[in-house]
Amino acid sequence: MTEVVLQADGLTKRYGRRVALADCTLDIPPGRVVGLVGPNGAGKTTLLQLAVGMLTPTAGRITVLGGRPGDGPAQLAKVGFVAQDAPTYANLSVKDHLRFGARTNPSWDQALADARIAELGLDPSQKAGRLSGGQRAQLALTMAVAKRPELLILDEPVASLDPIARREFMRGLMAHTAEHRSSVILSSHLVSDLERVCDYVIVLTDSRVRVAGDIDELMGSHYRLTGARRDAADLPAGAEAIEHSHTERQSTFIVRSLVPVEDPSLTVEQLTLEDLVLAYLSRSVAAHRPELETAR
Asked: Which SMART domains does the annotation name (predicted)?
């Protein structure tokens, strides 16, 4: 097994003066279900399109499963990709899609594709243009997993789906990853979707990676501290303030600390994944406030 599924070093993508991704450095281990989370425009799609070879870097480098993204049929066969709009061909039937997949993918698993279509209750003769949004997303996922890829990349595949269709899609993804133990990178701005399936998370804001790692390790090193009003400089040694808020008498901090926080004057609480992600997103917003105030 490849030691690193995706490795990026100083990866940067620019469009003229606009920076879509800046100085991205990552080492994603194999066998993980990775949640890539951030607001719209953060650079998530850019990173994933670089990973599948749809874009080329402006600077830095990226390797996927030990090779250059999109570099020939063998490399393409290793990666399954579902884009944000779950692309299907409106005039082709479900069965036509599976035939196309079988002709274009040397490791195509017809039994897996047929089993998923039957389980989903899709009519093989139905044209994709007549399917619901949720059914098209499921068909796109079937096309991706039936390739038997080593890495499955999903770019906000449920963003446009209603809650029921989104739940069914995520359920199908969980079943696939549990059975086949594929590596998965799933982009979303919905943390609730990621909590159910992911064991590794990357937070991306303003075109930069803010934090990345095993969810259990991150949850074990981030805390909410509450106590009498104080400055961040007065926090216990080793505690890095990620987010803070103050009232007249009380301060609340989200901190990262590699050692347990022991201070009897502070109430120490564990975070949810949503708490952790929102703290890093808020930190990014706060960093831009002085610029916004100046602009006004």
From this structure: AAA (SM00382)
Dihedral of alpha carbons 145, 146, 148, 149, sign = negative
pLDDT of residue 180: 76
Mean pLDDT computed over 30-59: 93
138 and 258 in a common domain: no
State whether 26 and 105 are in the same domain. yes
What torsion do the CA atoms of 256, 260, 263, 265 make, to the nearest 10 degrees?
60
Residue (of 176, 119, 114) closest to 151 by Cα position:
176
Q: In which domain, by residue range, is 284 found?
A: 220-295
Residue 268's DSSP bridge partners are: 225
| Final residue before a domain boundary, out of 216, 231, 257 | 216
User: Tell me, what's the pLDDT at 291?
Assistant: 44
- Residue of 233, 185, 170 lying closest to 6 (CA atoms): 185
**In the structure encoding, which two tokens stand for residue 108, read together?**
């195509």
Is residue 267 located within the same domain as residue 127?
no
- Whether residue 272 is found in the same domain as residue 192: no
* Contact yes or no for 90/127 (Cβ under 8 A): yes
> How many angstroms separate the CA atoms of 125 and 33, rounded?
33
Which residues, at least 6 apart from 163, have a Cβ–Cβ distance to it below 8 Å?
Answer: none
pLDDT confidence bin for 154, thresholds 50/70/90: very high
Determine which of 35-44, 96-105, 185-194, 242-251 has the lowest per-residue pLDDT on average.
185-194
Task: Give the strand pairing for 240-246 and 151-155.
Answer: unpaired
Beta strand segments in the chain, E: 6-15, 18-28, 33-37, 59-64, 79-82, 151-155, 183-188, 200-205, 208-214, 222-228, 240-246, 250-256, 266-270
Is 1 inside a domain boundary?
no
* Residue 147, in any domain of the structure: yes
Q: Encoding tokens for residue 289? A: 């406030």
Q: State which of 216, 248, 274 marks the end of a domain.
A: 216
* Whether residues 84 and 181 fall in one domain: yes
Residues 150 and 291 placed together within one structural domain of the fold = no
Pairing of strands 200-205, 33-37: parallel
